[in-house]
Amino acid sequence: MALSHDDYPYLYETHLHTSFASKCASNTGAEMAKAAKDAGYTGIFVTDHHWGGNCAIDRSLPWDKWVDGFCAGYYDAKECGDKIGLDVFFGWESGFNGTEFLIYGLTPEWMREHPELRCPWGEDPDPSWDLTPEKQYKLIKEAGGMMIHAHPFREEWYIPETRLYPDHVDGVEIINATHSSPLSKSHNDPGFDDKAIVYAAEHDLPGTAGSDVHSTTMFGGGVAFRNKLVSAADYCNAIMNGGDYILTNGVNWFDKRGRKII
Question: What tens digit of pLDDT does each residue of 128-147 get?
Answer without folding.
Answer: 889 999 999 999 999 999 99
